[in-house]
Amino acid sequence: DTAVSQTPKYLVTQMGNDKSIKCEQNLGHDTMYWYKQDSKKFLKIMFSYNNKELIINETVPNRFSPKSPDKAHLNLHINSLELGDSAVYFCASSLPKGNSPLHFGNGTRLTVT
Amino acid sequence: GENVEQHPSTLSVQEGDSAVIKCTYSDSASNYFPWYKQELGKGPQLIIDIRSNVGEKKDQRIAVTLNKTAKHFSLHITETQPEDSAVYFCAAKDNNNDMRFGAGTRLTVKP
C-alpha cells in the first residue's frame, strides 16, 4: 500500500556515469516533484510536473532531466555525475490545488565517488 | 519567490517538557502551512497543517499557530516523548503550488 515509492534506495556510482532514479505514486495525484536534500538536511525543490508539463524548474544543471511517462511516474535522469551530486533525492506528489500537502517517498541516497 | 526561515536549528528537551519551533515566511500570498517530521532513513511525513483562514489547530499533543499579519507560524509539541526525536520542517505553499521548506530543526527528547 506504498503511496510514493522510489528506487533504488541506495545508489553508489563513479563520477562521469549516467544514472536514473525511478518514482511512482498510487495516490492519483496530478503533480509530482523531485527534491534534493543535502548533508545539512536542507530540502531544495528541483522540479515539479503537472499533467506532464514542467511547471517549476529551479536552477539545477541541465545534466538533470525529469521524465514523466504518465502522471503516476516521474523519473530523474542524471548525466555525467559529479561529486557534488551526492545527496538524498526525494520524490513527492500532491493534488494540484494550493492547500494540498506533499507526500514523500523514502528517498534515494546517491553517492558519487 | 517564497523564503521560509526556521528556528532553532537544534532543540534538546527533557521528556515530558514542551518543544516550540518557529518559522517565518516572506510571501503574503502563501496560504498553506504544513509541518513535516523526518525520521532517520525516511522521507518527511506530514504531521499537521494549517490554512490561512485559521489561527490555531490542535491534534492531540501537537498544535500549530499562525499569525498572518506577522507572517509567522509555530509548532508546539507538549508532553514530549523520546519517539518525538526527529528533524522537523515547516513549509509554506502558495496558490501556484510552490512549496518552500525551512532549514529544519533537529529535536532531541532526552529520556
Major interchain interface with per-chain residue totals = A-B, 26 and 28 residues
Measured by DSSP, the beta-strand proportion of chain A falls in over 45%
Strand elements of chain A, count = 11
Rg from Cα of chain B: 13 Å
> How far apart are the termini of chain B?
41 Å
Low-confidence stretches of chain B: none
Shape of chain A: globular
Unreliable residue stretches of chain A: none
Q: What composes the largest sheet of chain B? A: 6 strands, mixed
Radius of gyration of chain A: 13 Å
Oligomer: heterodimer
The major β-sheet of chain A equals:
7 strands, mixed
User: Count of DSSP E strands of chain B?
Assistant: 11
Description:
The complex is a heterodimer of chains A (113) and B (111). Helix content of chain A is 0%, strand content 51%. Chain A is mainly β and 113 residues long. In chain A, strands 2, 4, 5, 6, 9, 10 and 11 form a 7-stranded mixed β-sheet that branches. Chain A is globular and about 40 Å long. The mean pLDDT of chain A is 91. Chain B is mainly β and 111 residues long. Helix content of chain B is 0%, strand content 57%. Chain B has strands at 4-7, 10-14, 19-25, 32-38, 45-51, 56-59, 62-67, 72-77, 86-93, 99-101, 105-110. In chain B, the strands form 2 sheets. In chain B, strands 2, 4, 5, 9, 10 and 11 form a 6-stranded mixed β-sheet that branches. A 5-stranded antiparallel β-sheet of chain B has the order 1-3-8-7-6, with no helix packed on it. The mean pLDDT of chain B is 94. Classes of the chains: A mainly beta (113), B mainly beta (111). Chains A and B meet through strand 5, strand 9 and strand 10 of A and strand 4, strand 5, strand 9 and strand 10 of B.
